[in-house]
Amino acid sequence: MSIYTRYGDQGYTRLVGGGRAKKNAPRVQAYGSIDTLNSHAGVAVSQLSKEDPVRKELLQVQQWIFDCGGDFATPDEKRPYKIEAEMVQWLEEKIDEYWSKTPELKQFILPGGVPAAATLHVCRCVAREAERNAVALLELEEAVNPEALKFLNRLSDYFFALARWVNLQAEEPDVCYQNSAPVFKGKKKPRA
């Protein structure tokens, strides 16, 4: 079996269910950016020791990111969607856990720190890009798993909170953006 099909030579790709789309179609842009996100998450995993519990957690998140990409590659729910509300809830619980254990933020911070945390900040940005691409599908009134859209939204917050946690564990302090106005004013501390 060959890995190449030559189907893309004319600028098309196949969707789940057998349909086809141009490689620059909004649906393909959406699941393509989710694939990019998963690759960046893989880099973060590679930067963590095998004993680090965050590594195992991120491997699970990668499985869900793959499912999320599959949901966006599936027009008109040609197969049951895989991202469910429980996954979004899990992300929210992890966000709250990490956020409650890191120092309070009063200013924006610069992305960076130890390599794994810096990569998690990249993941945050790519998750936002994937979310923007997913919203483009909504504007075209195409079928989208609403839980997958929520999942993408929570992923960026998860990666931000986790990046700060990873830096804290490495005793690497956040670096504040010098020209930042006060942020997170009036925001309630997440539930513990």
UniProtKB/TrEMBL annotation:
<dbReference type="Pfam" id="PF01923">
    <property type="entry name" value="Cob_adeno_trans"/>
</dbReference>
<dbReference type="InterPro" id="IPR016030">
    <property type="entry name" value="CblAdoTrfase-like"/>
</dbReference>
<keyword id="KW-0169">Cobalamin biosynthesis</keyword>
<comment type="pathway">
    <text>Cofactor biosynthesis; adenosylcobalamin biosynthesis; adenosylcobalamin from cob(II)yrinate a,c-diamide: step 2/7.</text>
</comment>
<keyword id="KW-0808">Transferase</keyword>
<dbReference type="InterPro" id="IPR036451">
    <property type="entry name" value="CblAdoTrfase-like_sf"/>
</dbReference>
<keyword id="KW-0547">Nucleotide-binding</keyword>
<dbReference type="GO" id="GO:0008817">
    <property type="term" value="F:corrinoid adenosyltransferase activity"/>
</dbReference>
<keyword id="KW-0067">ATP-binding</keyword>
<comment type="similarity">
    <text>Belongs to the Cob(I)alamin adenosyltransferase family.</text>
</comment>
<dbReference type="InterPro" id="IPR029499">
    <property type="entry name" value="PduO-typ"/>
</dbReference>
<protein>
    <recommendedName>
        <fullName>Corrinoid adenosyltransferase</fullName>
        <ecNumber>2.5.1.17</ecNumber>
    </recommendedName>
</protein>
<feature type="domain" description="Cobalamin adenosyltransferase-like">
    <location>
        <begin position="3"/>
        <end position="166"/>
    </location>
</feature>
